[in-house]
Known about the structure:
Blueprint: H1 4-31, E1 42-46, E2 87-91, E3 96-99, H2 102-110, H3 112-115, E4 124-130, E5 137-139, E6 144-147, E7 162-163, H4 166-176, E8 179-182, H5 188-195, E9 201-205
Parallel strand pairs: 1-9
Antiparallel strand pairs: 2-3, 2-4, 4-5, 6-7, 6-8
Amino acid sequence: xxxxxxxxxxxxxxxxxxxxxxxxxxxxxxxxxxxxxxxxxxxxxxxxxxxxxxxxxxxxxxxxxxxxxxxxxxxxxxxxxxxxxxxxxxxxxxxxxxxxxxxxxxxxxxxxxxxxxxxxxxxxxxxxxxxxxxxxxxxxxxxxxxxxxxxxxxxxxxxxxxxxxxxxxxxxxxxxxxxxxxxxxxxxxxxxxxxxxxxxxxxxxx
Length: 206
């Protein structure tokens, strides 16, 4: 008996099975349902919050400089590149999350668990925005904001420049247009309108 022949027979059988499988796969591919429409959401790669550094000498709830590598969890931009618009929140354990603008901060506050795993709005102990006049950090809920001005923020869309006093916000509005709003006057409908359509983000965490 030729010892090579059984081996050849096995190879032929394997080849036939492979071709049959390929034919079946081809048939399935032709009959498969139409592919689902692409998601409208962009995917942002979002890093975890920045931990508190005890060596900084700052209280855990104090506003801190924006790290150059920090990413906005809402839009994925680098807030350090637009310091005049930056915002931040501090969690009860001292961790911080940084934002490219007050608008992104407000969007974040509406859906904290969606942007930062394991955190909720109740875990936030401080919220800060940048005073557009002085560049200093101010508490977000005490700031005055200008809606509808000609100023374009980092996203080149509707934004809410913040000011330490209502008077400075009014002077800005007189020069650049818009109306002055308190923090409590900015509701979800206005935030959604400023964010605009087609700019929802699905979060892919590192």
